[in-house]
Amino acid sequence: AGLGGIGLDTSKGIVKAGPKNLVILDRIENPAAIAELKAINPKVTVTFYPYDVTVPLAETKKLLTTIFAKLKTVDLLINGAGILNDHQIELTIAINFTGLVNTTTAIMDFWDKRKGGPGGAIANICSVTGFNAIYQVPVYSASKAAVVSFTSSLAKLAPITGVIAYSINPGITKTTLVHKFNSWLDVEPRVAELLDEHPTQTTTQCAQKFVKAIEANQNGAIWKLDLGRLDAVNWTK
């Protein structure tokens, strides 16, 4: 999800840093956002493909085949799709966890050094709720904990696969995600308002630190991006 909230601001930061290509996969096309990204740095080729992370693994592999054929080399995958709505249990798990696992699994076809691939790097956008749950949204929090755990395993597998991984864990950030959302079984109808009472950071602050974490490219890092800071977290579970 490179075109909404934290994703768009991070995409802007990445384009400023000047990679050769930025490929954005998102469910909804946003031509204005794509045009804005292209205008920031004309040296960067920005392309968009429609993609829904809940599609079957085979479909993801098909899309990646198209992208790899066009670009030849892809260095970094950012898994950033996410929803926050504990009324939609299956969808939350499908987008926040299963989709991320499938996209990661699909790219291994192209990157895995056991298949002669060049390796690569995966940045998974998790959340501080992955190690410190917002208990009123236990489904969301657990889906994020699953991704933190999955990412830590990927990092330990890097000597075998040649693919490194790290997690980016934003704290409460002013995005549309947190304006209004449902708690599990409505245990706390005011959960969004209560969350709003906590200190927050802007998507711009979060994105700046996100780009720093990408530049660090540190296998196994669990980065906490909160209140405009970037901190490494030691988390064992």
Automatic annotation (TrEMBL):
Cellular component aspect of the GO annotation: cytoplasm
Keywords in alphabetical order: NAD, Oxidoreductase
Entries under InterPro entries matching the protein: ADH_Drosophila-type, NAD(P)-bd_dom_sf, Sc_DH/Rdtase_CS, SDR_fam
Entry keyword annotation includes NAD: yes
Coiled coil (residue ranges): none
One of the protein's GO biological processes: alcohol metabolic process
Record's catalysed reaction(s): a secondary alcohol + NAD(+) = a ketone + NADH + H(+); a primary alcohol + NAD(+) = an aldehyde + NADH + H(+)
EC identifiers of the protein: 1.1.1.1
Domain of life of the source: Eukaryota
Molecular function as annotated in GO: alcohol dehydrogenase (NAD+) activity
UniProt keyword Nucleus present: no
Family assignment from sequence similarity: Belongs to the short-chain dehydrogenases/reductases (SDR) family.
Subunit structure: Homodimer.
PANTHER family: 15-HYDROXYPROSTAGLANDIN DEHYDROGENASE [NAD(+)], ALCOHOL DEHYDROGENASE-RELATED
Protein name: Alcohol dehydrogenase
